Amino acid sequence: MSHLQNLLLDTLLGTKHVDSAALIKLHERSLCVASPGFSVMPGDVRTLVNGFAKNPLQTRREGLYFKEKDYKCIRADDYSLYAKNEKTGVVVVKTHLYLLVATYTEGMYPSVCVEATEKLGEYLRRKGN
């Protein structure tokens, strides 16, 4: 298992408030690593990359279509996208090289998912990733 995959498993899934996670290579627009059983299709990668390419206000207005679900965008800025669909959600944090994606499901605390994902994103940015 790679160092990056270990980071995802330990720091995100280890909280028990992240259902699945992935790292997407920002410039190549391709999946780098993902938690077991979590696949991010090329269309979903484009959606997430484009969410940051647009004006954040436009992303908040339009929401996100991810993993065959419409998500209402509740935060969109230069480094973070948070979106929810009923009792599930997706948190996306941008670093220099990656998009860090984490999902949560019913029964999980979204705030823990957000905090863990943001902290890992900050760690990766400090490391130049």
From TrEMBL:
<dbReference type="GO" id="GO:0030154">
    <property type="term" value="P:cell differentiation"/>
</dbReference>
<comment type="similarity">
    <text>Belongs to the profilin family.</text>
</comment>
<comment type="function">
    <text>Involved in male fertility. Required for manchette development and acrosome biogenesis during spermiogenesis. Binds in vitro to phospholipids, including phosphatidylinositol 3-phosphate (PtdIns(3)P), phosphatidylinositol 4,5-bisphosphate (PtdIns(4,5)P2), phosphatidylinositol 4-phosphate (PtdIns(4)P) and phosphatidic acid (PA). Contrary to other profilin family members, does not bind to actin in vitro.</text>
</comment>
<keyword id="KW-0446">Lipid-binding</keyword>
<dbReference type="GO" id="GO:0005938">
    <property type="term" value="C:cell cortex"/>
</dbReference>
<keyword id="KW-0221">Differentiation</keyword>
<dbReference type="InterPro" id="IPR005455">
    <property type="entry name" value="PFN_euk"/>
</dbReference>
<keyword id="KW-0217">Developmental protein</keyword>
<keyword id="KW-0744">Spermatogenesis</keyword>
<dbReference type="GO" id="GO:0008289">
    <property type="term" value="F:lipid binding"/>
</dbReference>
<dbReference type="GO" id="GO:0007283">
    <property type="term" value="P:spermatogenesis"/>
</dbReference>
<dbReference type="Pfam" id="PF00235">
    <property type="entry name" value="Profilin"/>
</dbReference>
<keyword id="KW-0009">Actin-binding</keyword>
<dbReference type="InterPro" id="IPR048278">
    <property type="entry name" value="PFN"/>
</dbReference>
<dbReference type="InterPro" id="IPR036140">
    <property type="entry name" value="PFN_sf"/>
</dbReference>
<protein>
    <recommendedName>
        <fullName>Profilin</fullName>
    </recommendedName>
</protein>
<keyword id="KW-0963">Cytoplasm</keyword>
<dbReference type="GO" id="GO:0003785">
    <property type="term" value="F:actin monomer binding"/>
</dbReference>
